[in-house]
Amino acid sequence: MAEHVPHAEHPAYPVGLRLAGRRVVVIGGGQVAQRRLPALVAAGADVTLISPSATPSVEAMAESGEITWTRRRYEDGDIADAWYALVATSDADANARASAEAERTKTWCVRSDDADAATAWTPATGRSDGVTVAVLTGRDPRRSAAVRDAIVEGLRDGTLAAPHHRSRAPFVALVGGGPGDPDLITVRGRRLLAEADVVIADRLGPRDLLDELPPHVEVIDAAKIPYGRFMAQEAINNALIEHAKAGKAVVRLKGGDPYVFGRGMEEAQALAEAGIPCTVVPGISSSISVPSAAGIPVTHRGVAHEFTVVSGHVAPDDPRSLVDWQSLARLRGTLVILMGVDKIGAIAEALIAHGKAPETPLALVQEGTTAAQRRVDATLATVAETVKAEDVRPPAVIVIGDVVAVGPRK
Asked: For 20-60, how does the pLDDT look when each residue is reduced to its tens digit (9 = 90+)?
């Protein structure tokens, strides 16, 4: 006869619970419940919360109908008909009684206060591209979380090789790469970049990420596509369509956000006309992130209650301009100008002519969020001269307004 070994010395048997439409009972509405409830709701569970009180976040879930909240303490019979239970109150006696009921009713039960008394443990869980990673290391939750984080990060940035063994459909993704720092691309954008066969990259995209791509990936500099009889944007559109029709996974890597002066909609429309679906991945816009990196908040309590972002690539007196500079001059908030370095003198003159104070503070942030970032301060009256004297060059974000003087200069 085999020697009896205490259950605590046996490893846990990992399994994925399919809880959609099945009753789950959570005892306690504190921080543990606040962390665990979103995953239970996402799994489609029919969640009943038993607790006299709850955190504001848990209460909001009840008010929105995501969970059912019974506002009282645990009573015997609450776990009846449940498939799964989470016991997480500060009352040790209530926890023990609920755990005992779960044992009697053969309901798998997690206890936040006593893992040894539980019949189930919650793993450290993460997800990436349809893969769920669940890690258990017994009684060392911090180690579980660290292992989980390492695996998920590797899957997301492509450093952990996990190729698709089933056929993968080609795709086109318009990815906003953020303001320049490669760490500021979104997780989804970085994952799609790691899956690409072809990357068509802008000059202002996070170029450092291109060095991480496998050797088989074709990287195309959008600025060097042979234009021939086409306009530049038409050539880029055609390149996207051509590679997509060839069955490739194509990423259009753009600076900032695809839909903030990025012509992303033009590319999406061209792909749609060609019958090619595309995914748009938002990016961190330089209009907000670059000022932030330079210590400038675009809004601040008591200083600016709004901010306006405009393109400065067309001068105010150019008939092609769509910007109402007269109205902008009357605004009390922050004005953020992109692509306006070479036109800033004319822009400042127009704003002053329409009533903006000449002493209004202004900052130019060149190469924001990168190692080459620098900030140059001026006023509307002095900016034209300052740009020449300091040799400010694009790309640079221009911030106009009292917020420039709010924070510590970086």
From this structure: 999 999 999 999 999 899 999 999 999 999 999 999 999 99
